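Homework help thread (please don't just give me the answer)

Our assignment gives two proteins as sequence + structure token strings and asks us to describe the second one. The first is just a warm-up. Here they are:
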Amino acid sequence: MKILAYDDNPDFGGHQAMACHGLEALAAEPSIDLVCMANPANRRLAERLAQTGIAPLLETQCTTRKLQGLRNRFSPGGIRDLAARFAALKPDLVLCIQGDIEQSSQAVLAANRAGIPCASYLALPHRLAEMGATLGALRDRTNRSLFQKPDRFIAISERMRQLLVDRGCTKPVAIVPNGIPLPQAPRARRSEPRTVLGMLGRVEFKQKRQDFMVECFCRFPKHFAGCRLLIAGDGPDAKRLERPGLLLPAIQHPGNGFGQRRAIARREGPRARKQFGHSIAVASHHGNAARQRFEHHQRNPFVARGQQEEGDATVKRLRIRLPRHELD
């Protein structure tokens, strides 16, 4: 079976880190011929796949851009060209890696046009209006038909499956939870006795609110006496975070990457604050206290409405599976 994995997003995010684990498993299956097509601007994705032996990559001729769902309606030429390219490659299945329903949507429509079965790995089927996106309500209406285009979906949890149904999806949905490799490394000692507060994730103020955490850390020094704030990750607001005068000596932003975030989670033992993801799991696996914060705000939706219960259940399952580690 020939599978064409497709991702035309120029940025590398958490859903791609998880998707790479799945692609690695597919590549190891003798009966599967895996071909990957990725945006040439996404070097981190190419490097991550190369580490697992998936190389070389085919370059996408399309790029996910802002308002991509609307662009699909008014600029169909790229979809026609991509459909012709898919037909020439003759895959048995096109697997589209989608962070949200607009990302890599051109490939979904191109696969439909070429008559090739399509599966979507869709990490976040949330409504864009709830995410505070530009023209969110209009885009939600425009994108409604995209939930019927793939032949099947892959969701990361039961709640995400239910969100797909709520968005109008009637196609089969398989649930593949997020996971991490579990190295047998011993727990490292903290590099210093101070309490380390870690924010591990994409540096994007609108969603992750690192700016708000820095402001709180600076405005209430008594509450954070004896603490060091460590912000790990990169993203569109990383340079804004590093502007002169913003970071105090007790605040550090070492910068890039999922590998570094995993290393920090192992080494420093941060009390990590982020949406549930692999950084939390890595910190917990190595015996470090990990506090999972679930909240909902119209413009800062760490968790969609109704996910509080699922989040609590996830933490309880981790307590059972990893009884020797602390999760609070």
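The one we have to describe:
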Amino acid sequence: MPKKCFLSAAMLGLVLLTCGCGQMSPTFSTLPATEEETVATAATLPTVIETKPPATEAPTTAPEPETISIELTTAAPEQTKPVSTSGHMEAYNLTYEKNNVSINYPMLIGMTDEEKQEWANEELEKDVMSLLTYYGVNEETDTFKLDYQVSTIYRGEFSLVYEGEFTKAGSANTIKVRAAEDLDLATGKHIRLSDRLALAKVKKCILGDEKTEPDYEIVNAFVSEDTIKTYLANQDDIFFENLVKNADFGAQHELTGVYSYNYLNNIAVVIPLPHVMGDYVVISIKQQTK
């Protein structure tokens, strides 16, 4: 019989336990509740992960691929809590682990629209796993650790920020990882930077013009503000066009390393940088319409 297990974890302590390697296993932890969401239904949770145990002797033929199944139930197991709540909608933690790869990401439950909920959970899983391809992670030899924090779970919007590290096998350099995702749960679409701000607005905020100074705030950087501002001021039009039009998950192209999300009622933008500059910077632009 495959081993069945259910694990819990404390999100704030970033302590996560799983049931084996190469599988997604639900773990649970607690964050303070946010403002009340307008949608509500009964919650369902994954409670059982079934995996095929490894063979005890060397097989004479190629082993069967590992199988993973998730059983849903209408009642949460005892002593399990969501990482974030809003009304009856809750976000629970899932963990993917294989060798030195560990990725935490959320699963939503309790939405009134089950189709939108299914869409959201599929996108969350697909998008976070695409980071393995973006960074060129070899799951057999490399080290990749990723965790997240929920930024917004309110009025049909769900956004989160991923943060972690990536080390290529044999490399002395560890790359800082930062990504973000913002979903409109009412429409079933990603909220992207191009939906928030026009290209001209972003260029004016970052570069300024003959009448105004640059108008943005650096909220997370690993080098001096002057170094960041000089680097951004020397970028060309193609850089800014790609920055806005190709940002975020949900675009019809490969990831560019640029992401946006709500930050203190403004728009935070993650911009990739050379490794010597800290790999990325997060800037905040005032929330304005196009």
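TA reply:
I won't write it for you, but here's a hint about the kind of observation we're looking for: The chain is about 20% helix and 35% strand.
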